[in-house]
Amino acid sequence: MANIASAKTRVRRNAKRTRINSDRLNAVRTAVKKTRAAIVAGNKEVAETCFKAAESALMSAANKKTLHKKAASRKVSRLAIAIKKM
C-alpha cells in the first residue's frame, strides 16, 4: 500500500478512472453488438437506429481517450459498410 499522500491519491484516482473507462467500454461493446445483431437479423431500420447509438458511443469513448480515435473510426466505418450492404 502507498505511504505517500500523492501516491494514495493516485491509487484512488486510478481506481475511479478504471471503473469509468470500463463502464464506457462496456456501453460501446453493447451498442456495437446490438447493431451487429440487427444487421444479421436483416432489419435495416433497427440497424440504422442502433448504428447512430453505436457511433455516438464510439466517438464519445474516443474523445475521452478510452478508445483510440482511429480504432473508433475503423469500427464506425465497418458498421456503416455493413449497413450499406444490407
Rg from C-alpha positions?
17 Å
CATH topology: Methane Monooxygenase Hydroxylase, Chain G, domain 1
Largest sheet: none
CATH level-four homologous superfamily name: Ribosomal protein S20
The CATH architecture classification is Up-down Bundle
Please provide the ordered H/E string of secondary-structure elements.
HHH
N- and C-termini, Cα separation: 54 Å
β-strand amount: under 5%
Shape label? elongated
What does this structure look like?
With 86 residues, the chain is mostly helical. It has a single domain, classed as Ribosomal protein S20 (Methane Monooxygenase Hydroxylase, Chain G, domain 1, Up-down Bundle). Helices cover 85% and strands 0% of the residues. The protein has three helices and no strands. It has helices at 5-41, 44-63, 69-84. The protein is elongated and about 60 Å long.
Question: What descriptive keywords fit this protein?
Answer:
3 helices; mainly alpha
Strand and helix layout:
Elements: H1 5-41, H2 44-63, H3 69-84
Helix pairs in contact: 1-2, 2-3
What is this entry, summarized?
This protein is mainly α. The chain has helices at 5-41, 44-63, 69-84. The chain has one domain: Ribosomal protein S20 (Methane Monooxygenase Hydroxylase, Chain G, domain 1).
